[in-house]
Amino acid sequence: MNWHFILTAGHIIGTVLGVGGATFAEIFYLKSARDGIIDQTESGFLKTTYFIMRLGMIILLFSGFGYLIWYRFTGQEALMYNPRFWAKMTVVLTIVINALLLQAKKISLNAGSAVSLTSWYGAMILGSWRGLEAGYLQILIFYTASVIAVYFILKTIKNKIKTK
Ligand code: HEM
Question: Is the pTM higher than 0.90?
């Protein structure tokens, strides 16, 4: 069992907890849209889910920096100099800032959950898509358009659920 295996195992566990958590947070939030109220049970589910997402991010940060140290000691620093990696780091930073804004109630739950959901899936796709031949700006323009699209899709779903 080598370091790369341990880091990848940690990174994938972090991804599962983060992306899985972001998905369930959205499902619980959509379910609460039915009566427009987040009751105690739903709020309990959301709190637990946010805790799991934070745990996922902590594991990703440790394994992610572990990868960078491993690159340094194995002379593979060049692997970091690609736009896909820096676009992913920008998306990861957005996840953290968005979570802090949501916690401080400085961003609406509608907007914050669209940013969170798109960013977690975006980071997972960017992390796994080794052959992606796109520039940093191209990736971020596509990412921003995806956040806006997801925002309106979720809003439409919520309105549909409410009227049922
Ligand atoms: C939301 C947070 C993140 C997600 C969802 C994510 C997801 C992924 C995924 C799915 C992979 C492919 C793993 C594999 O099959 O080998 C990957 C690779 C990688 N990630 Fe992340 N990651 C995140 C955060 C980070 C952070 C914060 C760092 C650095 C500080 C990082 C550094 C890396 C590196 C260097 C690789 C390539 C590893 C290799 O060379 O095999 N990731 N990431």
Answer: yes
